[in-house]
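EI: anyone free to look at a 406-residue chain?
SC: sure, send it
EI:
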Amino acid sequence: MTAESPIKEYLDLSRRVEELEKEVMREIVTYLLVNSLRPDKRTLRAMERELGIPYSKLRRLVGKLIEEGIVVEGSVGTAKPLAVLDIDLALRKGYLKIELELKDILRLHHLALPSSVAILGEIKGDESYRTLPKLPLRVKEKSRVNALLEYMRCLPHAPEEEELLEEVKGKWPEKEVEHRRKVLEKIKAEITEEEWRKLVELNKELKKWGIFLPTTGGLPELYIPFMRSNVFEIPREESDHVIAEYMRHTKLPREAIKLLRYCPHLDPWALYYRDVVIELEFRDLSEVSDKELKEAIKRVAEKNLKFLLYLIQPLIEDIKRRGVKGVLEKWNKELPVGLKYTKHYILSEAIPLGYASLLVRKLGNKELAEKALQYVKMLVAAVIYDYKGEKEEKENLEELAKKIKI
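SC: here you go
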């Protein structure tokens, strides 16, 4: 095949077309995020006008994004607005046009925030925010807690499992029955006869819960109670200024915006209330002074920040030891191309820490807030200066962080 071969020219051109298509798809995804509060701008026809891409080509490219799980097509009346389904996946696959700067990552977090109103009939929940880039911090610890929780939750069902497996033998898929039998055998091998006897007694006692017992599972036992403590109703008298704010952001008339009774963005306020009540050991708040209540609110904010610091600590230590490149190599070791972590993920961890520390400083704890702010600057410095680890760098990460202005 000569240099002038039409085959070579065709292949080179095809590769270039693929590259250009990806760049255009990146523009599409970014456009959808920027217009997350405007469903009327996220239909194919509207995007055809706004982006200047012919309808047939736009539909084909959007189809690819839908197929890859990046974008989803909704339905509001006769309109079919598109939305970014998975920000994390979009970033991993290179479909997100975003600079490696703190302000750009911060803007991404803001674009993903849930809305307290329905706009043109569309509700923007917290699904998008849940897909923001996050690092696998303390995954083994979380898995250990979850595994033990599931074991403890399911163990009391073991005595009746034996009877159930006999009943469904030949009726249920053999592989499922065999798997459950192996789990049961493992449980019986791990506990003593006395423990099994107590388990049988507990299983009998649980029948007092009547209809709850046969309908139980992970979601009923964990999700439903948690969400009950997580429901916060917005006061109706505050609706006018909320709607006015969304009118300003969207440039839409009042009739296009409808306030939601239950808002995803109010979950943290609900959890704050719950945590404050727990902090005060379930005392009647009517008997608690404002001063004491403020102190409890402050302690809850501090504990939330300490938890974030607890999550981040291994990352900071790892960066000091391995450097940014080494940390990414460790995480990406077994991940396929197109699903790897990037420096954006490290920078993204600075956002929650920054806001949590700001709140703690407002509430009065300067020392803890500044410690967290130092961590924020260390993460930013590590990414910006491509920190290579303490063995290779002349400056340690703390010194490098002093150069950062955020």
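EI: DSSP finds 18 helices and five strands in the chain.
SC: 👍
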